[in-house]
Amino acid sequence: MSLDWIYYAISWILLLWHQAWDAIGVPDGAVLGTNWAWILAIIFLVVTVRVILFPVFVKQIKSQRAMQALQPQVKALQEKHKGDRETLQKEMMELYRKEKANPLMGCLPMFLQIPVFLGLFHVLRRLNPDKPLDKKTLYGWTVDQFDSASVAKLFTAPIAGKFGSSAEELARLGADGTTVKIMAGILVLVMMGTTYLTSRQMILKTGWAEDPQQRMIQRLMLYGIPASLLISGAIFPIGVIIYWVTNNMFTLAQQQWVLRKFPPPPNVTKSGTTTTSARGAAQPAKSGGLFGRGKTTPPAATKPAAPKVAGPKPGAKPTNPKKGQSASPKKSRPAKRQG
After folding, report:
1. What does the pLDDT read at residue 54?
2. Do the beta carbons of residue 126 and residue 137 sit within 8 Å?
3. Could you give the CA distance from residue 203 to residue 166 in angstroms, rounded to a whole number?
4. Is the model more confident about 133 or about 82?
5. Disulfide engineering: 150 pairs with which of 127, 255, 258, 327, CB 3.0-4.6 Å?
């Protein structure tokens, strides 16, 4: 299947933002060794994509909350069908279908961004000042736009260059190999770190899943993907790494905001298990609002306990507690005078 429609869409958004920054007055030439109009165009390509995918991200959070609410039932099924993996999987799929929870929804936003990533990778990889004119005008580019992007740099490192660029590729881009490797290496490390932080932030807020398949996906996202970037990052153009890092930073901020709007279920701890501790029961519950935001309901007031009255000791003479209140004080008689 042809992916030209993706390349056209990515090129259109990228060029639109570049024209916008150029119209605002951002210089197209290099300032501090950086062509800011093109760098900002890549950054706002991320913003555009994330705004479009925001409803999907909200559905992802809702699905994760639904999965968390089902954790007690999932754990009960695991105990019931321990040793019978086939029956356990059938029962869990039936539970997910009945409660309308989708375990794969958590990965949907990432999957939807893969075409964007591949499209930008293809567009930036093509940047080469020596290409013939008919190749420069593909996907809606003009010759001037293509030539401008081909020499665009980030701190003197071309956005089309990569850590693994050959000497021939660097010569075509007019770049220094050491500078490209240093800049690309720093960006790859930042890309790995921010990728890890985005997954860690989500897991700390939602907890580890009880479902073995869900837990495996969580471990893959937390450790596997960042580790794989150490190798695959060598073939990514610097412009693509800028896109990835910006996307991660956007995700960190967006997750922090959305997770406040969709707090985890009150009966689920960070480890994904239920809790019935007295401390948890005493916490005020949130109520109202589509996103779980509203006034907190204070715990019900309890009547103070009546003071305990000690009973009389064995053998003691009974006393009337109201004696001093009801009886009038006796008049004192004058003492007899001894004559």
Report:
1. 85
2. no
3. 39
4. 133
5. 127
